[in-house]
């Protein structure tokens, strides 16, 4: 069977190259479901039409080296399981990785020189890693973690957010939106201040020369 190297698109599956599994897995599940919801539900049945379609897409959604791991599989379930073990590990390995991710989440903290966007990416990366291993970190837990892990310059904004919003209903993307707006306002004020200091310095130098 020919291995499709391009992807993803409406007609091509995303391609697993052995290094992008964490991104490939959820996209591949979605791709198969968009083709035929039954294909994903019936993937465990060797004789089903859904299994044939799902297995075909998995075969075409990996590169040549990865294909060697699953080329003898007759069911999508078998191929999927082999890829999970190869890139996620056995149950014991998953538990160890989850413990590591949990530890990373517990000590998660935004550094002083980190932007809100960069911190947002780090938070989502940890949440997605945990989800891929079968454990979803509740949104409310992530939100409270973010609010308690920001530098002191955000203290006033955090207080404002907590007073103005029901934290139990606030979404994570909304929270980061508020923080990003606040960060931009701080940056704008600092730029104006720096320009004012620079102008004053130039004026004093010219006065001294004259």
Description of the structure:
It is a single chain. The protein is an all-alpha fold and 210 residues long. It has two domains: 21-88; 97-209. The chain has helices at 21-35, 37-41, 49-60, 64-70, 76-88, 91-106, 116-132, 139-147, 155-164, 172-209. The longest helix is centred in the C-terminal third of the chain and has 38 residues, at 172-209. The radius of gyration is 25 Å and the shape is elongated. The model is unreliable at 1-8 and 202-207 (pLDDT under 50).
The whole-angstrom Rg is 25 Å
Q: Tally the helices.
A: 10
Report the helical percentage.
Answer: 55-70%
What's the N-to-C terminus distance? 83 Å
Number of beta-strand segments: 0
How many domains make up the 3D coordinates?
2
Q: In terms of per-residue confidence, which ranges show pLDDT below 50 for 5 or more consecutive residues?
A: 1-8, 202-207
Percent of sequence in beta strands:
under 5%
Mean pLDDT: 82
Shape: elongated
One letter per element, helices H and strands E, the order comes to: HHHHHHHHHH
Structural class: mainly alpha
Let me know the largest β-sheet: none
Protein name: Gag-pol polyprotein
Pfam family, one: Retrotran_gag_2
């Amino acid at each position: 069977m020919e291995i499709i190297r391009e992807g993803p698109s409406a007609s091509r599956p995303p391609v697993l190259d052995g290094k992008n599994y964490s991104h490939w897995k959820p996209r591949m599940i979605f791709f198969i479901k968009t083709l035929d919801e039954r294909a994903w539900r019936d993937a465990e049945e060797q004789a089903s039409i859904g299994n044939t379609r799902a297995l075909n897409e998995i075969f075409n959604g990996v590169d040549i080296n990865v294909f060697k791991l699953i080329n003898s599989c007759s069911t999508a379930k078998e191929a999927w399981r082999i890829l999970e073990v190869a890139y996620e590990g056995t149950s014991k390995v998953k538990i160890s990785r989850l413990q590591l991710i949990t530890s990373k989440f517990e000590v998660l903290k935004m550094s002083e020189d980190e932007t809100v966007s960069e911190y947002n990416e780090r938070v989502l990366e940890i949440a997605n890693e945990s989800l891929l291993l079968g454990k979803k970190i509740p949104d409310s837990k992530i939100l409270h973690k973010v609010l308690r892990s920001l530098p002191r310059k955000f203290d006033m904004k955090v207080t404002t957010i907590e007073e103005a919003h029901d934290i139990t209903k606030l979404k994570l993307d909304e929270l980061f939106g508020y923080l990003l707006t606040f960060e931009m306002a701080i940056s704008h004020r600092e730029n104006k201040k720096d320009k004012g200091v620079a102008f004053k310095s130039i004026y004093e130098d010219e006065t001294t020369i004259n």
